[in-house]
Amino acid sequence: MSDLTKMSAAQLAKAIADKQTSAVEVATAHLDRIDAVDDRVHAFLHVDREGALAAAARVDAGEVTGPLAGVPVAVKDVIATKGVPTTAASKILEGWRPPYDATLVERLRAAGTVMLGKTNMDEFAMGSSTEYSAYGPTNNPWDLGRIPGGSGGGSAAALAAYEAPLAIGTDTGGSIRQPGAVTGTVGAKPTYGGTSRYGLIAFSSSLDTPGPCARNVEDAALLHSVIAGHDPRDSTSIPQPVPDVVGAARLGATGDLSGVKLGVVKEFAGDGSEPGVVSAFHESLEALVKLGAEIVEVSCPHFQYALPAYYLIAPSEASSNLARFDGVRYGLRTGDDGSRSLEEVMSLTRDAGFGPEVKRRIILGTYALSSGYYDAYYGQAQKVRTLITRDFEAAWQSVDVLVSPTTPFVAFPFGSRTSDPYQMYLADLFTIPTNLYGGPAISVPCGLSEGLPVGFQIMAPTMADDRMYRVAAALESTVGTLTPPTLEATA
Ligand code: GLN
């Protein structure tokens, strides 16, 4: 058997089903890899060795079958896992063990996947670099001195470091796609409501979307098909069949895109993107044209307002969602020595438990929602959101998908964007419009700039997730997947 940690999820599932290897062997290989490299990568906040080996043993005993039976998966720490620590990378939830599984975790278990542990992230999924984790950053396997993206940097780094073949992320403004882009992996944000939010620790409820992360497009599609689908426990879950994303990825892999129209967003051109990112993007467009695709320039005039609208809507919803962390119901409680009022204990707990970025968002959101300012800020941002949705709907009259770089810059060095929050927010310039609209989008590696990965983003209409997988797989068929330098060599 070749190195099990280098195999794709599809190959692992087949090898286990064909009894060429066992689920326990596969889990052990990945747990050993985590032991060997995670002190340098820090992709994981918690490794569930016992739970993983027990789940793998159930697969080997034939108790669980399914398309991904025995394949390891890493889960972002913002997702509730029964009995397994879940902190959202915040001190305020340190030590919390949820009494239930998120719907998507139930589905992962039912499909026979083996959960290795919980991955690092920016606190409460707020950030683009994982530097806002209360437990220290994750290091990008391509260059350990650089960020792995965020908020789901742990999930993406676990893939790039061969610690897991599959991972789960959540995307509120880009937190699956941007980490995918800067680690040379694939990250897909499904249609909002296409994957259940039940059991996600809420950041911005009208935007939060869990989705798959993998090292190639077919694996992402396989994971997508396992976690997606209607869930009556989530009121915004869409009661429609899941698009055939696996079929679409396999079709795309044949390398034929004849008749497919790709829209290049005019307003994104020259928007502060690094030259290496722009040239990798244009080379990819040329490669897609060779496969038969047609390129059409599309104007989306309101996309330029997406970032400011997002930074009113997301913090507003966060300020409300994070009110539940009050020192009474979950996790941390500070100053409860009998001498203080309830309000004082809540205030001390929140002061000690939340990091600076989370506090910044709560203050911003509370302000934007307060009477007197609501119409000027939150109300206005909601109107902009409608205009952005109309830009997408107008685009679908002339093209099948929209394309752009995933993020304007490659992985940046630690500390280079933390002093100015706006510099950090710019990482999501190209990903946020999709979240405000609610459609699906995927980031797929498209080359290197100065030795670091560049991501290509494909955005599709709501519930047409299959379309983006087809184009992504076609691009992958010509540019190939990226192989990060071995950590052994960069150590
Ligand atoms: N980077 C964005 C933010 O900080 C997006 C985060 C996310 O998608 N969870 O809000």
UniProtKB/TrEMBL annotation:
This is Glutamyl-tRNA(Gln) amidotransferase subunit A. NCBIfam families: gatA (TIGR00132). Belongs to the amidase family. GatA subfamily. Its EC number is 6.3.5.7. It catalyses: L-glutamyl-tRNA(Gln) + L-glutamine + ATP + H2O = L-glutaminyl-tRNA(Gln) + L-glutamate + ADP + phosphate + H(+). Allows the formation of correctly charged Gln-tRNA(Gln) through the transamidation of misacylated Glu-tRNA(Gln) in organisms which lack glutaminyl-tRNA synthetase. The reaction takes place in the presence of glutamine and ATP through an activated gamma-phospho-Glu-tRNA(Gln). It comes from Paractinoplanes brasiliensis. GO terms for biological process: translation. SUPFAM superfamilies: Amidase signature (AS) enzymes. The active site is at K76, S151, S175. Keywords: ATP-binding, Ligase, Nucleotide-binding, Protein biosynthesis, Transferase. The keyword Lipid biosynthesis does not apply. Heterotrimer of A, B and C subunits. Residues 25-467 form the Amidase domain. GO terms for molecular function: ATP binding; glutaminyl-tRNA synthase (glutamine-hydrolyzing) activity; transferase activity. InterPro entries: Amidase, Amidase_CS, Amidase_dom, AS_sf, GatA. GO terms for cellular component: glutamyl-tRNA(Gln) amidotransferase complex.
